[in-house]
Write a structure and sequence with these properties.
About 75% of the residues lie in helices and about 0% in strands. By secondary structure, the chain is mainly alpha-helical. The mean pLDDT is about 80.
């Protein structure tokens, strides 16, 4: 049995999601100038939870009251928010956002392997394996091969990003259990759960009450919360319900592309030849995993 496929609308939403999440590396880099990693994550999930709670009730929905739903929300909040957000921002305090994004792009590798073992409808196929390899090569070319050469004191930062990728993979698989909830309710429950866990952790380990962030830091936290989290997770859960865990994790291939494009528009960076080549390889990998390219060139049956 083959897994769920991507419709045109889901592809468009995937690109939008990649832009929102690609910007999160940039916003986190700014916020790290004044705040600790756990404080940044706490502000991100807490403000996003408040915004989505307001959205849920203004849209006429209600949060569930049963223990099972909230238990699932807390697990999802841990796997998809608390653990990966903290690891990524902490990792960015030791390595640049470029290497962080390339390491985060390993998420589909873990997702394919874990989905093959843990689900019945997302088994590994040849085209998915070839597409993953092609996509990963594209990411390496885009960021630059030297990004993974160094094994100096930044190694722990790289390991942290890989840990985040594994956590995202598990979240993508587990999150399908929340598909019976409205999109906004599932996203809000997950963020409320992660906020409840993050507040005491940040207060105890970083004592953020004495921090004095500037306007740019506040703007970055708000952007992380409202754009890269609130809006992004509404899109995330929609794609998860419609296209499945493995297809959803393809967004991590596009995040480095989004980061590069943001650099061109905002920072005036130039698009190098190896970056363009990486983008081509990444989209070729996406097309291969989706299966449409293979079906186009496959001989039609005459039966």
């Amino acid at each position: 049995m083959s897994g769920p496929t991507m419709a045109g609308r889901e592809w468009l939403l995937l690109i939008i999601l990649s832009i929102l999440w690609g910007g999160s590396f940039f916003f986190a880099e700014i916020a790290l100038r004044d705040l600790g990693p756990l404080t940044i994550v706490c502000g991100r999930v807490s403000l996003a939870a408040i915004a989505l709670l307001a959205f849920v009730y203004l849209s006429g929905n209600r949060m569930p009251g049963d223990i099972k739903s909230w238990w699932q929300f807390f697990i999802m909040g841990c796997l998809n928010n608390m653990i990966p957000f903290s690891l990524i921002v902490w990792g960015q305090s030791h390595i640049d956002s470029g290497p962080a994004s390339i390491l985060n792009a390993t998420t589909p590798l873990f997702t394919v392997a874990l989905a093959h073992m843990l689900t019945a409808d997302e088994k590994l196929s040849i085209n998915k394996a070839v597409g993953i390899i092609c996509g990963i090569i594209g990411v390496v070319v885009l960021i630059g091969p030297d990004a993974l050469d160094s094994l100096d004191d930044r190694a722990w930062g790289k390991i942290a990003i890989l840990g985040a990728a594994i956590s995202y993979s598990l979240a993508g698989i587990f999150g399908r259990r929340l598909s019976h909830h409205p999109t906004s309710v599932a996203a809000t429950g997950m963020l409320v759960g992660s906020s409840v866990m993050m507040v005491p952790v940040a207060l105890v380990l970083e004592s953020p009450m004495g921090a004095d962030p500037d306007l740019a830091t506040w703007a970055s936290i708000l952007a992380l919360a409202l754009l890269s989290t609130s809006v992004a997770y509404l899109i995330y859960f929609h794609i998860l319900a419609k296209a499945g865990a493995t297809n959803l994790q393809l967004v991590t291939f596009l995040v480095p592309v989004s980061a590069v494009m943001l650099g061109i528009v905002i920072l005036g960076e130039r698009l190098s030849n190896h970056t363009l080549m990486g983008m081509v390889l990444i989209f070729a990998g996406l097309a291969c995993i989706d299966g449409r390219l293979l079906r186009k060139f496959r001989p039609r049956s005459t039966s």
